[in-house]
């Protein structure tokens, strides 16, 4: 089963778009994790600044926890940046492949039109040859 170039590129574009969606999902997951950490940091900061005597006795523990959360947030910020670049890269690849697919399809249509014209010319020449 012979496939033309545009059909092959269409399948590749489909795969590339799937990779793009996977990258977007990874980015969304990382963003959600950062939001959860930000919320936790707010709660810990509120506990550190609380005047409640129970919280004051745990202030050293809270500050250690806050430092760990800051480190996690920084690490996730770097991961998020990496995912953002990956999304852009995958989207660009998909767009480029889509352009190549359209060009291949156009070339195939031109070739088919040229071949039909050549067939008409051949038929005309053959018809004229039988008249003489």
Automatic annotation (TrEMBL):
**Stretches for region Disordered:** 90-115
User: Where in the sequence does UniProt note compositional bias of the Basic and acidic residues kind?
Assistant: 90-113
This chain belongs to the protein called Flagellar FliJ protein
